[in-house]
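Students often ask why we bother encoding 3D structure as a string. The short answer is that it lets us treat folding as translation between two languages. Here is a chain of 381 residues written in the first language.
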Amino acid sequence: MTGLPLDGILVVSCEQAVAAPLATRHLADLGARVIKIERPGTGDFARGYDETVRGLSSHFVWLNRSKESVALDLKDPADLATVLRLLDRADVFVQNFAPGAAERLGLGAAALREHRGRLVTCSISGFGPDGPYRDAKAYDLLVQSEAGLVSITGTEDAPAKSGIPAADIGAGMYAFSGILAALYERERTGRGTELEVSLFDSLVEWMGYPLYYAGYGGTPPARAGTSHAAIAPYGTFAAGDDTDVVLSVQNEREWAAFCTDVLHRPELATDPRFDSGGRRVAHRPELHAEIAAVFTTLTGEELTDRLAGARIAHARRRELTDVLEHPQLLARDRWTEVGSPAGPVRAVLPPIGMAGRAPRMDAVPGVGEHTDAVRAWLDEG
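And here it is in the second language, the structure alphabet:
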């Protein structure tokens, strides 16, 4: 078996920024042909976010390998007709226009599928196709704020946004999985379907635990940095040589082993301040003081050896430069290279691995790089 599961699937995407490009890049990883419609000249505005990857945008390089870029002006009737010709052949159409824009262009799901019954359409929006926030700007930070993620992230003193575009990523992944489900359904019914995904709905789904916690408990989870509102010890602790080690002790068996084999203080396991999860949370400052009194006498290597010996869940808090050379990535040969307008760039292999089959890892395109070739392909058919 040498092919990929989406070989032969044609995806046309009027996309920009993060959510839609993430969904379609995952489809491309699995073998789909993805034709990305971009503005002539400037292209997807994510191309201009930064210039850190040999003059290219880090966001764009991450999200757009293995795609064909076709530059079309959708306000030009001839170019719009080219999009419709592409959609006559497409299996999937993805768009993240502003609300109502697709319909005004004649690219709304209902109009497209009227004569294209097998077409799967996926609309990605900020807050959904209706409701009072329908037309609100939906940049990732704004959605994180509206969904409450910012309120539970950060420290006691200050809230913070997630360091990655969580709302965009969530919507992109739901679009990806929804498209796969729609294609599977089409195999049984012969009919495509219309999908709606919003950044807000996606992130509210991810907020499930804190929403239940606040709704039924009466108070939101406390912002606690890398600590946890309901578990202790949990979070980042420093060894004597300033190595940061992250702990996650989640049950009484682990707590007893931690006290005996890591702290060498078995009496702490039954200390009335710490002898249950709730009491450890209630007495977190005293708990941290007891832990620090031991950890500061150890090097990072000594501490991780003790934790490993006691089978206590732990990790190193790594900086991004450390992750680039992470021993797990290197041992499993997870890094490769893809082409780009600036030459070869590093790329990590997709998270979905298929036995005996390599993922598609083609180049990141330049703006309109494939316009002429795609027009010629259309004319041939």
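Translate back mentally: Residues 17 and 46 are 5 Å apart (CA to CA). Keep this in mind for the problem set.
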